[in-house]
Fold this sequence. Notes:
Elements: H1 6-19, E1 27-32, E2 35-42, H2 45-56, E3 63-70
Parallel strand pairs: 2-3
Antiparallel strand pairs: 1-2
Amino acid sequence: MTNVTDSAITMKVREQLPASGLRSGRMRVSTDNGIVQLNGKAQSDTEKLTALNAVRTVEGVQSVVDGLEVEK
């Protein structure tokens, strides 16, 4: 496995979210030791799951911490 820096992971996640059809401006991304924290708003449970799954596909991501809130 390639050693990917946290900043590179964050950048790739920020690219992956819109590529998955999400409005990434509503989501904040931070990475520490390969653990990605995703915060912000999702419009639906489906959008939230799509975002979490998209993050998991990025090389170097060890785990994802879900801080997304679904707007009611």
